Helix-turn-helix domain-containing protein
Amino acid sequence: MSEPLFTLDAGNYRKCQQLFRGTHRREYYDGEYWVDDSAAVEVSARRRAIGPYTIIDTSAATRQFFRRTRKHIREDATDLGVLWFVRRGALVFSNQAGQRVVGEGEFLLTRSMSPFFIELQPADCGAHEILHLTVPAHLLRKHLESETGPCGFVGEQSREIAIARQMLTQVFDDDALEEDAARIIVEAAIALAGRALGASRKEGSARQSLSEQRLDEVLRFIEVHLSDPNLCTGMVSKGCGVSQRYLSLLLQGTGKTFSELVWSRRLEMAREWLAASHPRDVAIAEIAYGVGFKSTAHFSRKFKSVFGQNPRDFRDSAMTLAANDREATAPQLGAALH
C-alpha cells in the first residue's frame, strides 16, 4: 500500500532538506535538495516499498533541485540506482560529462556513487510528474546487460520503457496485490529497463552479422529443448536449418563444445531448481529427468564432479542456508515494525 513520503507547501518548504528522505531518512541518499519559492510551492511524493525496492510517485507545480557531491558520497556511501520515468515536464541531469534533458515519456537511470545535479521542471501546463524506482546497486547489476556509467538514457520511442512504467504504475496503485507478486512485477520492470538501456547503447553500432543471428537461433533452440534427453547436434542442425559442420563452427564462438554447453546448462538449471525446492514437493529424480538426464546415477555423478556435492547434500545445504537467513532477518524485521 502506498503512503505519503513528503508534502511541501508554503508553510514547510524551508524544511525540505529534512523532509525529502521521509521518516527516519529511510529513502534516497544524502544530498542538497531545495525548491524554487518564486512561485506557489506545491510538491507531493508518495512511496510504496516492495522488498528492497521503493516506487515513488512525485507530482509538483514547483521547480525542484537536487545535488549530490563527492562530500555527500564520502559521508553517505549508499549505493542506489534510481530509475526515472518522466510523465510530465522535464528532468535536466548534469554531471562532469555534460547535460541531458529527459522529456515526457523518456527514461533515465542515475547512480548515487557519482556526483550529479538534477533540476525537475514543470511542463507548460504547470505540472511535473515523475514515477521512479530506487534499486540497491547490487540488485540492479544483475538486470543490466553490461555495467553502466554514472547514468543511462532511453528515448520516448522505447516500448520496453513504456511497458515497464505501466507495470510499476499498476503495482503502485493496486493495494490488493500481494507482496510476492508485486516483487516479481517490479523485478520484471527493472529487467525491461535494463534491456532497453542495452539496446540504446547498441544503437549506431554495427548490425548483428548473419553468423551472430544464426548463433542466437541455435542457442535459443538448445534452451527450448534442453529438457529433451534426445537433444543432439543432428536435432539442432535440422531444427535451425544449418549443417552439423556449420553448427560446430558457430558454437566455437561460445568457447564450448555442444556437449559442454548442454551439460553445463542442464546442471545449472538443476542447481537452481534444487536450491528453490523442498524434498516433499519435488524429488531429486524428477529434477534429474526434468533437465534432460536419462538416469539419476548419471545426474548425481555429473553434479558432484562440477559442484563438489551430490544433489541431496547440496539441497540440504541450501535449505539450511535459507533457514539461517530467515532467522537472521526476522529480528531486524521485528525491530523495523516497532
In short: The chain has twelve helices and twelve strands.
